[in-house]
Model the fold of this input.
Amino acid sequence: MKYELVYIINTAIEEDPRKELIARFNGMIEQNGGTVDSVEEWGKRRLAYPINDLPEGYYVLVHYTAEPTVPKEIERNLGITDGILRYLTTRIEEKRSNVKPRTARIAPAAVRSEEAPQQEAPAQDQ
Done:
């Protein structure tokens, strides 16, 4: 199954320990039998609301493929790691086209006034 993980790191953590933290979680996914598809570092961004009195956080987005038990283990480790403010794992649904397409319904043609047979008014002789 495919998953998307977003986590926010405290901005007080220096660059090298932050890189090690990101590598640690990517390694944890691979140790549990998953594969990391992509890692995007969004960088320092303002939070919607202060978390632990911090106005900013360092955002990381990870796309990975793993068994259904792996996200629970990753979230457990994220929860007990100092420096992680928030995290969210989402399962990505793959679209399947099991639904049969609808047959096109054609509305009955409305009779236009031009096409309707018009009766001519009788001519009056004067």
